[in-house]
Amino acid sequence: MKTAYIFPGQGAQFVGMGQELYNLNEASKALFEQANEILGFRITDIMFAGTDEDLKQTKVTQPAIFLHSVILANALGDSFQPAMVAGHSLGEFSALVSAGALSFEDGLKLVSQRANAMQKACEAQPSTMAAILGLDDETVEKICVQVEDVVVAANYNCPGQLVISGSIAGVDKACALLTEAGAKRALKLNVGGAFHSPLMEPAKLELQAAIEATEIKTPVCPIYQNVDAKPYTDPETIKANLIAQLTGAVRWTQTVQHMLADGAEAFVEVGPGNVLQGLVKKVDRSAQTSAATIA
Questions:
Q1: Catalytic status, residue 88
Q2: Nearest in space to 165 (alpha carbons), one of 195, 132, 204
Q3: Residue 94: active-site member
Q4: What is the rounded CA–CA span in Å between residue 65 and residue 91?
Q5: pLDDT of residue 178
Q6: In the predicted model, is pLDDT for residue 60 greater than 90?
Q7: 133-174 tens-digit pLDDT
Q8: In angstroms, what CA-CA distances link 32 with 72, 122, 128?
Q9: Do 231 and 223 meet the contact criterion of CB atoms below 8 Å apart?
Q10: What is the pTM assigned to this prediction?
Q11: Which residue in 68, 69, 88, 89 is the catalytic one?
Q12: What domain of life does the native source organism fall in (predicted)?
């Protein structure tokens, strides 16, 4: 059976995440403790018993979700046999580590640098995102182009759900126009800034050098990357796509469609929450989905 393993992004976090994994065995506990050392603070304290507010900071959220996903994949042992992998935004790093393309340490360092760079970009220019429900992708794209302020289609989550990203004025104008055009809802998101938009350019430049200096190996299976939803195994191409990802769109709808077309028979979500399973079902109701669990 061809199994696609999929890894969630920001928004899937919850207080208490990872505690069960930490208590599971010495190997999982050792990885969490190694992460505390690499990061220079006890992220496990925030994950297991912090406040929602503490966990919601980008610099905490991203490494926390990454750790939950990667340590869970590691704990699956021999049952983790991916035919293909993909991750939503931040989840792309979790997917690369789990597929053997990035080491645990390098993956965590990159995720931490990415989170800090994105936080800085958010603070430098207040910006936001909004979920547009009930309109086709093309209409959303056309309306974004008409707005003079910065606003772009950022996350193609599933048919009828596209997240836009940009300056506060740009997103507000686009939301008003999209509602007029028939969107069921235009919902501003509680996020730190305009992820996957041109406003992340400073973060992209900061992260580019770090990614280029990191060793990426050929993964054990193809990784379907966010920027164009296509499968890759070549390390240099994977790097280029990871760099482009910060300012490019997350093409999740197309990723799931491509995985299905390439023979994916089951989708297993590895990490906190079940958001991606829901999105897969919206693309294809008959798709088999489940959450990774430790027997």
A1: no
A2: 195
A3: no
A4: 8
A5: 98
A6: yes
A7: 999 999 999 999 999 999 999 999 999 999 999 999 999 999
A8: 11, 28, 32
A9: yes
A10: 0.96
A11: 89
A12: Bacteria
